[in-house]
Amino acid sequence: MAAEQQSGGSGTRWRATVSAEQRSHITQLVDEAREELVELRGVHSGTTAKVARTLLEHLSHSAALIDQALVHTAAAAVAAGVALEEIAAWSRLPAQELADIVATGQDEG
Predict the structure, then answer these.
(1) pLDDT means per 10 residues in the chain (109 residues)?
(2) DSSP letter assigned to residue 83
């Protein structure tokens, strides 16, 4: 792991450069989003308003959790030395927007 930590950037190993706490937090966000989506199985009966409300509330909450996971994952990758441009391409976010998000997250963290 020490050799991996010293190499920096895209060549490092996730587990060697991202703390267990960060990895756990990202996993928790993804798991919560998955649970929200699973709850939508069979939610297609009832009034249109009730079904739409249930679907939209769960989808919205899932999307927010995924957005958080995306930001935490991007921040971890930047901290590990992966090029911002690569992360921007993978996350389909503009590099400047991603840089702003990561910087804001670092200021809050």
Answers:
(1) 50 84 96 93 90 94 95 89 89 88 68
(2) -
